Amino acid sequence: MRKSVMVAAGSEIGNRYRANFDVVHLGREPLLAVVADGMGDGQGSALAGRVAVDTFVQWTSSAGAINAEVLRDAVALAQQRVGEIGRQVKDLAGCTLTALTESADGFWITQIGDSRVYRLRDGLLELLTVDHTMAWLGAVHGWYSFDSREAAAARYHLTRYIGQGAHTEPDVFSVTVRPGDRYLLCSDGVAEQVVYQQIRNILGSEESPEIMVRRLLDAAEAAGGNDNATAIVVAAN
Questions:
Q1: How many domains does the chain have?
Q2: pTM recorded for the entire structure
């Protein structure tokens, strides 16, 4: 599928929360990159992100060949386990989950919530995932302007997330990988604070993934650091 892939990950607390409720996993051989973002700042949020990521990693790592069924099963098991946490702690237990998983033919993307996957290819930065939020629906259907109060509030209204229920499914799809591609997985602490052009410029530089990640997190901090911020950069060569 590829000659080589360079990867790096990083995460920062920011200025809003007392702790980091983002969870990041980066496995290299084969590539398995996962970002989760807990909902709120309670015990349920912290447990949901950790359990969801651990469950997804364990299931996919033991599955052998990666396909859509394996990825959906991994999310279904995470839904079950996070639901059990919610019942035990009697607190909101939920999180997003966004993953990039290597297969023989390319990468599989798994998406539930509003963390994101971007791809820079031939100078074009594309958002490959859809935010599962009322804000996204409102933008698509023209319900309110992007910078309105209604849009700001709707960004916190997730329509799909881990912990929502046993029958809530992720988006699962495959993408090709070409030399020169740059992929970014990030929580909304990056996506909501670092503007499109800045992301494009950082991913389009000749710097290492480690430096790209550092620059993205620094940019989120410079923009206010209003959320936990997590980024994984995957560079195909």
A1: 1
A2: 0.94
